[in-house]
Write a structure and sequence with these properties.
72% of the residues lie in helices and 0% in strands. By secondary structure, the protein is mainly alpha-helical. It has two domains: 195 residues, Orthogonal Bundle (Clc chloride channel); 184 residues, Clc chloride channel, CATH 1.10.3080.10. Helix 6 packs parallel to helix 8, helix 7 packs across helix 8 and helix 15 packs antiparallel against helix 16. Keywords: Membrane, Transmembrane, Transmembrane helix.
């Protein structure tokens, strides 16, 4: 009895310490990352000519990846595989490569997100922390869980969603309550440290939420299916463009340079830089109903071309924007409150693409409050059902060992 109690206390102390180390580390890294993105976005918008360096930037970082850590090109899928029990590890080189690679991609206008960088930094930091605390192979998956939850939470300011996302994205439906507590503790610490270090997170106002009527229920049902189909087509398009680029251009360095040139040509033909970088004005405009009609389609195209070429950064923020802008358009067409349908699209497209309906629901609660909770829960699950088996993370299809 005494020995068992001593063992439990030691394990509790160990995992609390691990949560503190990972949470603090990823919180500081995420704060630096977010503030850097805000800075380079201002620099790019004030000096638009620098987007001409996007091909060179992409080629330089692809060269660095290939020279120092080709394995790190696996990105989020690599982290997910490790969390599922795959052999190998998350290389430490992933952290600086994805951090500075994403910052420079945004500086020069690549249309990518930021969640991927946070998850990958979290995975690399968790791997290093595991070696420090001599975590055995059996418990290694929980390290990755902590890294993912901390990274997601610190970047988006949603610790509960981050903790749940880390389990859902790894397809770990069964878990001990203690592991969820460890994940949540890491997420809370990461979010708090990031905030104290200067990171800021956006909050959006839904505005009016419609009353529950058969008409509203019908629209939400149809819109959620549409959001699921959009997320399905997004995942297919990124995969298709990657394979097409690989078939056309074997050399990875030349491939990303070619892809960057296509992005620049597209931006030039549009005569706007709205869809370069994070494109955060798309979100604020969508919730106000003032976005251009085809914002969702344009951001979709720019993001698919950027990710397909090999740029790192992630898909989640673009998915938010695609969903919100499409939702805003559907709200205007259906005469439902625009902010409400934009929020539904924001959450549902993310859910369908990542196959994480529960995390998406809790993210909606953390970002938008509880006034539309039932609708967002419905939208998340319907979108996942409509989106099919495959999502943006191919590693989710693996069987957990």
């Amino acid at each position: 009895m005494a020995k068992q109690l001593e063992k439990t206390v030691k394990e509790l102390f160990k995992w609390t310490s691990i949560s503190l180390v990972i949470g603090t580390g990823i919180g500081l890294l995420a704060s630096f990352f977010l503030m850097s993105l805000a800075l380079v976005t201002k620099i790019r918008e004030a000096n638009l000519w620098i987007i001409l360096f996007l091909p060179l930037s992409g080629m330089l970082f692809m060269h660095l990846y290939l020279k120092y850590s080709r394995e790190s090109l696996g990105g989020n899928n690599l982290v997910i595989r490790q969390g599922q029990g795959a052999t190998g590890n998350v290389p430490w080189q992933m952290l600086p490569l994805t951090l500075f690679g994403t910052i420079t991609t945004h500086l020069f206008g690549g249309s990518v997100g930021r969640e991927g960088t946070a998850v990958q930094m979290g995975g690399a930091l968790a791997e290093a922390t595991g070696k420090l605390f001599r975590v055995n192979q059996k418990d290694r998956w929980l390290l990755i869980i902590c890294g993912i939850s901390g990274g997601f939470s610190a970047v988006f300011g949603t610790p509960v969603a981050g903790a749940i996302f880390s389990f859902e994205v790894l397809k770990r439906a069964k878990f001990k309550g203690t592991s969820l507590v460890v994940s949540l503790l890491t997420a809370l610490i990461a979010n708090r440290v990031a905030t104290l270090a200067g990171a800021t997170h956006s909050l959006y106002q839904l505005g009016e939420v419609p009353q529950t009527t058969l008409r509203v229920f019908g629209y939400v049902l149809v819109f959620s299916v549409i959001f699921g189909l959009v997320s399905r087509f997004f995942a297919f398009s990124v995969s298709f463009i990657k394979k097409l680029y690989q078939k056309l251009i074997v050399n990875e360095v030349l491939r990303i340079g070619f892809g960057a040139c296509l992005v620049l040509l597209l931006a030039g033909s549009y005569g706007t830089s709205r869809y370069l970088g994070l494109s955060l004005p798309i979100l604020s405009d969508s919730f106000q109903g003032s976005q251009p009609t085809f914002d969702f389609l344009n951001k979709f195209i720019f993001t698919v071309l950027s990710l397909g070429a090999g740029f790192q950064g992630g898909e989640v923020t673009p998915l938010f924007e695609i969903g919100a802008s499409l939702g805003s358009l559907l709200g205007q067409l259906s005469q439902l409150p625009v902010g409400f349908v934009a929020g539904l699209g924001f959450v549902s497209v993310f859910a369908g693409a990542t196959k994480t309906p529960v995390a998406s629901f809790f993210m909606a609660l953390e970002l938008f409050g509880v006034t539309a909770a039932g609708w967002f829960l419905l939208g998340s699950f319907i979108s996942v059902l409509a989106s099919g088996k495959k999502g943006i993370y191919e590693s989710q299809l693996r069987k957990i060992s």
